[in-house]
Amino acid sequence: MTQDPIAHHDANAQPCTAPLSATLDALRAELGADAVRVGEQIGERAMTDWTRHAPTRPAALLLPRSTEEVARALAICHAAYQPVVPQGGMTGLAGGAIARANDIALSLERLAGVEEIDAASATLTVRAGTTLQTAQEAAAQAGFELALDLGARGSCQIGGNLATNAGGNRVIQSGTARDQVLGLEVVLANGDVLSSLGKMVKNNTGYDLKHWFIGSEGTLGIITRAVLRLHPQRAARHTALVALNGYDAAVNLLRRLSTRFGNDISAFEIMWPDFYDFGVKLTGTRSPFDGAHPLYALIEHAGFDADDHGERFAAALTEALDEGAIRDAVIAQSVADARALWAIRECTAEFPVRLDPINFDVSLPISVIGDFVERCRAALNERWPGNESYFFGHIGDSNLHVTVDGNSIPGVDHHAVYAFVYEMLGPLHGSVSAEHGIGLLKREFLPISRSPTELAAMAAIKHALDPHGILNPGKLF
Questions:
Q1: pLDDT tens-digit profile of 315-337?
Q2: Which of the chain's ends, N or C, has fewer CB atoms near its CB within 10 Å?
Q3: Cα–Cα dist 359/244, whole Å
Q4: Cα–Cα distances in angstroms (integers) from residue 454 to residues 432, 449, 458, 470, in the given order
Q5: How far apart are CA 141 and CA 131, in angstroms?
Q6: CA 376 to chain centre
Q7: Which helix (H) or strand (E) holds 195?
């Protein structure tokens, strides 16, 4: 007897999957034929993300236009036990939005747009498919600043940023994506809409449910709208590239500048020579320094005083130079200069094109990052002589990135490199993911950073909100 794909099933019932054709027919009836694509209608963009993981065409691609359509789609798929993979800008680096051949992908790209800016509350209400850059520009036009920022700003979407709790370049000043959220609207696996679109900073009324979904990578529900907090616009930004004697000097400089300027230090990005030289070469420029140095820091000072033309920032760096705390410094004299310096750091956008990247996004206590880099580099060189590896990160928030070019170690399976590096991370009680998420690529390594009790609690939450296990299966767990 054929199951009605729209019928509701008891959570304790045995799975009784409806035929895919019946599910697609039901979806077309609810969303319209133009919102349900199959076969060759599905473009390459839906098949993989920036990991360049083996592309797979999903069984179908849904393009809902509203929260209500997302809800109706999930109700149908829930009843049919049909797996659904939410997709945003497809800029992820953990495989979190990659669908399998039997999955239905659900893209939020049509669910885009800034709905409201509330100046009194300093909030922005936005749909999940809106790109980060669009949201940033809307905030700027209203005289505010959306603090979240990362290199993929023109492609990544707000829903994906929140689902992965994205970090980015300004975490030391404003926190991660989680810290920008006041309210969320989420569609649960069964199609119920959980709307908590509050604008209040204080709201102690039981569990703060939004935090269950931020960082859950679409495994608990699909984010459709968000209320984001806005900040006063920083009137003056000053950027400098600094040459340093080593990691300890970088930490000391960060503490020195933080003591002097407090929260006005908005970015402190460090680059070891392997990464820095690659970035300079990729941008087609020459290094602003005459010689090579052991370490480089890209620093941004952002203040509220429009009359601040960078004199205090320059004076602080001059003092550091005179005292031997830094080796050299170049301060951007224009917006174009600042963009040129940032282009070196943001060359990572070209990694998937120029390299066969094996990416690591780890978090460690700031005090041990320098030692870990040296040990990791030495271990990689001993294990795979001739490998080309790049080290860089946001040390102000304890985040280190390592990228090994698979092209430099032909024939070596990526998994072997992952296991090798994460094994070194374990004894230091670090995190296998600082900001990219777990997704598909790191799920087997999650126990390195999470205890059995923590994993059991996560699994219990997953079962409570998605009893049929249809949301982004194979990710995290």
A1: 999 999 999 999 999 999 999 99
A2: N
A3: 25
A4: 15, 10, 6, 22
A5: 16
A6: 24
A7: strand 193-196
CA distance 101 to 178: 32
**435 Cβ contact list (under 8 Å, min separation 6):** 164, 165, 166, 167, 168, 171, 176, 361, 399
Amino acid at 162: L
The answer to whether the CB of 5 falls within 8 A of the CB of 79 is yes
Element (H, E) at 188: strand 181-188
Residue reference for tokens 């230090």 = 265
* Nearest 10 degrees: Cα torsion 358, 361, 363, 364: 30
Q: What is the pLDDT of residues 109-141, one digit of tens each?
A: 999 999 999 999 999 999 999 999 999 999 999
CB 326 within 8 A of CB 320: yes
Burial class of residue 474 in the structure, from the number of CB atoms within 10 Å of its CB (0-12 exposed, 13-18 middle, 19+ buried): middle
Do residues 128 and 158 lie in contact, with contact meaning Cβ atoms separated by under 8 Å? yes
DSSP annotation of 431 reads B
Please name the residue that has the structure tokens 């609810």. 30
CA distance 476 to 198: 29
Q: What is the mean pLDDT of residues 291-312?
A: 93
Mean pLDDT over the full length of the chain? 92
At 68, list the tokens: 């209500």
Domains and CATH numbers, the chain: 114-232 (3.30.465.10), 236-348 (3.30.70.2190), 355-433 (3.30.70.2740)
What are the residues whose beta carbons fall under 8 Å from the beta carbon of 248, sequence distance 6 or more?
370
Whole-angstrom Cα distance, residue 405 to residue 400? 17
Q: How many CB atoms lie within 10 A of CB 157?
A: 29
Which tokens belong to 85? Answer: 């993979």
Tokens representing 12 are 């304790």
Tens of pLDDT along 231-267? 999 989 999 999 999 999 999 999 999 999 998 999 9
SS (H, E, C) 4-34: CCCCCCCCCCCCCCCCHHHHHHHHHHHHCHH
The residue written with tokens 């049929």 in the block is 468
- Contact present, 145 and 139 (Cβ < 8 Å): yes
Helix, strand, coil % (nearest 5) of the chain? 40, 20, 40
Tell me the mean pLDDT in the region 78-86: 97
